[in-house]
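[INFO] parsing input record for Neprosin PEP catalytic domain-containing protein
[DEBUG] input buffer:
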Amino acid sequence: MRKAKTNNTGFGYLWENGVGCPIGTVPIRRVTKDDLLSLNSLDDDKYKPRGSWSTNFNDSNNPVHNDQYHYAVGRTNNTGIHYHGATMDLCITAPGVKPKQFSHSRLHIQLGNDYVQIGLAVNPVLYGDVLPRTFVYTHAGGKSCYNSHCDVGMILVRRDVPLGMPFKPVSIRGSSESHYVIFGLIKDQANGNWWLQLGDDAEEIGFWPAQRFPQSFGNKVEWGGEVFSANQPSPEMGYGFLPAASVVYDAYVKRIAILDDNFHFDQQVYHLEEFSDNIQGYGVIDSLEFKDPEEGHIIYFGGPGNI
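[DEBUG] output buffer:
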């Protein structure tokens, strides 16, 4: 298995100039008139990501679903543990979506009534195309937004990694090479700030100040796919196929880990449950097998949707 193209000294390869913004500045994706119209539509409750805990529907014999969101995730099922971070190696896929739909592959940490998501999104409403792009979503204090588009959004500190940049190459189902990117959402033990980390060397891309979240720890974590459709049947997730527990044929999140109460990394993460709200359209397989130490704990997910 080959990693997604990363650069331990920076992410300049994401830019045409191979470098990024001038020193002393940070990248801000240019917002056009059309972008503003799209962002305005995001003010509605539609298009706003959420956790799978917002639904308890799980009836494969009844495809009718009043909600427009669907999930296939591995999620923590315990109570009483304080999470101070989580990490993942996320397979880069480009699921098929239509306008007014999205398909996200992400890590979600719930902090009481607030939450943060990080990962890759195919989201035409947000980005105007169907490329897999990095995204961050913040819900805090009754406000919410993607990336840094509001005052509760992430504060970007890296000049060479703008949020919303496409990641490539994209993995091809059945290929002997699979591409992934490493994400981490980690709380700083010294000051309580939450940091977005990206790449092999856990480069710190941006942060949320500690005071942004009334609750200082996470109480739930989940890894996997989330889709939304405004009107049409639901879009693809991952490769667009139900999983079969194979890194060659499935979208996956591997080497998942959590930072526990004592700020120690737990790479086993035994306390997980599989959750798909409609197994006709989306599936998830949680594998705790460690046949290859490099792979770690893997969650396979995906599906054709159309429900």
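[INFO] The chain has one domain: 12-59+68-302.
[INFO] shutting down worker
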